[in-house]
Amino acid sequence: GAGVSQTPSNKVTEKGKYVELRCDPISGHTALYWYRQSLGQGPEFLIYFQGTGAADDSGLPNDRFFAVRPEGSVSTLKIQRTERGDSAVYLCASSPGLGDYGYTFGSGTRLTVV
Amino acid sequence: KQEVTQIPAALSVPEGENLVLNCSFTDSAIYNLQWFRQDPGKGLTSLLLIQSSQREQTSGRLNASLDKSSGRSTLYIAASQPGDSATYLCAVRPEGSRYQLIWGAGTKLIIKP
Questions:
Q1: Are A26 and A104 in contact (CB under 8 A)?
Q2: Which residues lie below 8 Å from residue B24, measured CB to CB, with a gap of 6+?
Q3: Rounded-to-integer distance, Cα A59 and Cα A73, Å
Q4: Complete DSSP assignment for chain A
Q5: CB A54 within 8 A of CB A47
Q6: Contact between A46 and A32 (Cβ < 8 Å)
Q7: Which of A35, A90, A103, A104 to mutate against chain B (most B CBs within 10 Å)?
Q8: pLDDT for residue A40 is more than 70
Q9: Residue A19 to chain B, least CA–CA distance (Å)
Q10: CA angle A53, B46, A52 (to 5 degrees)
């Protein structure tokens, strides 16, 4: 596609529910990143994929968070037993490979846990 | 631990003014620094990237400077326009990190017509 697509754009869920957030990167981009941005804060790194594998998941806050990229393209961030503190904008970015150029962000998914 | 701070958190100026946004970081061991723009409901857009060996980068009305030793960067916007209204974030890539960025919280800029 022309850009990084994230769906849904908004998600409201009840505390304790399971949610999935989807990221469709730019075609051919091998590197994919998930960030979380809380209100009034800068983005915080969650996980980085190179191809199909999670090369670095050190930013995932706990084991309720998990992400996959089974075919090296679309990625899904999964959150189990959601908590109110999980409310944030979840940003996805992709790039042709490692490096700082060609780093393209999606418009994010705003997750609200009530 | 690297920390990035942006001051002020918000800024409102009349159209046409030149302005400076500030970014500071606590650890000078960085590979590069980037300035991004974030519009409501849209993704982050990279504006300028300065390598650690560089002092400044320019793109149109934007000029970013880097003083690595003092842990500071500025983004200068000339002849501001209402379309420049957005949140501006800076991010550093620490030395030894091949991809992680450490971000400031941003400066929300409003340009009044």
A1: yes
A2: B4, B5, B6, B7, B71, B72, B73
A3: 21
A4: --S-EEE-SEEEE-TT--EEEEEE--TT--EEEEEEE-TTS--EEEEEEETTEEEE-TT--STTEEEE-TTSS-EEEEE-S--GGG-EEEEEEEESSSSSTT-EE---EEEEE-
A5: yes
A6: no
A7: A103
A8: yes
A9: 20
A10: 10
Q: What is the pLDDT of residues A59-81, one digit of tens each?
A: 999 999 999 999 999 999 999 99
A4: its two tokens? 């990084």
* B44:A43 CB<8 A: yes
Cα–Cα distance for residue pair A6/A94, rounded to 1 Å? 12
Cβ separation A31–B4 shorter than 8 A: no
- Residue by residue, pLDDT tens for chain B (113 residues) are 899 999 999 999 999 999 999 999 999 999 999 999 999 888 899 999 999 999 999 999 999 999 999 999 999 999 999 999 999 999 999 998 878 899 999 999 999 99
